[in-house]
Amino acid sequence: MHFSWRIEHLERQNDFQDPAERQLFRQVTVRDTRSLATAIQGFGWTVWLVSVLLRHPSELNMTAVVIAGLCMPVAMALTWSTRGPVTNGLARCLYIVFLALGLKVDILITSSPVFWVLPLGAAITVGMSPIYTGLVSYTVSAAAVWGILLLGLFEPLLRANDADWVLLFLLSVMALGVTLNLLFRHERKRIFLSQRELARLAFRDGLTGLHNRRSFMLAVGEHLQRQPGSGHLMLVDVDDFKQVNDRHGHETGDQVLSAVAQAIARCAEPQVCGRLGGEEFGVLLTDGSDPEAFGRRLCETVAGLSAAGLHITISAGIAAFRADEPISATFRTADEALYRAKRLGKNRSLLAEPASGPS
């Protein structure tokens, strides 16, 4: 399937409607748009500041100017620093409100305040459409902007000869802003789904859905950076898997691998497990439980499966991580224990004896 078709398919899937998925999308959107939002806010604050500097102080309501001038940078700082979708959305809304208040103070001392209401409202309404992550927050902010700018000036606009054009302009600007906001959100959703799908392709095994070798090795490395020398590595191999493929075909072999992978994932949860290649799997044991007991339980669980009507068993080798040896040595030790388990009759796990230290 073409990648763009795959993304369109994902957009229609119900899993994106999952609350956790929606929350992740909002968090990622806030992270990805805060630079753009802060830049647009900085531009608006600069334009407002220039308009203030062009006025004589005696003409201005200095109290309102000071409040707007201080609150806008605070809202900008909150937009940049906050990570939560709700708090970040509130920061963006507060900025727009104080920008509208600051501009309202400016236009009230012009010779024709009514003249400036429509262009300023349109510029703010359209200009802020990319920085809002949701339609509700955008609509509320846009309504607040127009409410502030039109306060006390709406009736003079309606008394004009072209009042019907004024209303058409207001509705058109709001419709344009809403449309742009929805389009930006749609594109951000496509980017989010593309990134999620690329991450899945890069770090998940396509057949079993477990971590692939790269992802598993990254998890092992991160664990050992946090807790050097702690935990155990288990390597698992499906017994006589080549015979399954030779006698029953690769489709049956895939069913067997999927069933074994699901059993490993259930037993290992919430610990990391992955498919390392072919019929070999890995489990990162970090919870402090008895690795030998876990190995026995996993072997018993898989032996109780009936995958594609076949009786399946596994063998496993377990090795402890050591702070004084590389990851490759631990893998080698676990691999040796795995093949000793096979030589001893298969359908069992074996914990490697700890290497004796230097004398």
Fold and architecture overview:
The chain is an alpha+beta fold and 359 residues long. The chain folds into two domains: 3-202, no CATH class; 213-351, Alpha-Beta Plaits (2-Layer Sandwich), CATH 3.30.70.270. The protein has 13 helices and seven strands. It is elongated. It starts with a helix and ends in an 8-residue tail after the last strand.
Can you describe this structure in just a few lines?
This protein has 359 residues and is an alpha+beta fold. Helices cover 66% and strands 9% of the residues.
Query: How many domains, as an integer?
Result: 2
Quaternary state, please?
Answer: single chain
Order of secondary-structure elements: HHHHHHHHHEHHEEHEEEHE
- The total of helices stands at 13
Mean pLDDT: 87
Into which percent range does the helicity of residues fall?
A: 55-70%
Radius of gyration (Å): 31 Å
Task: Kindly state the number of beta strands.
Answer: 7
Keyword list:
2 domains, five-stranded mixed β-sheet, two-stranded antiparallel sheet, single chain, 9% strand, alpha+beta, elongated, Alpha-Beta Plaits, 359 residues
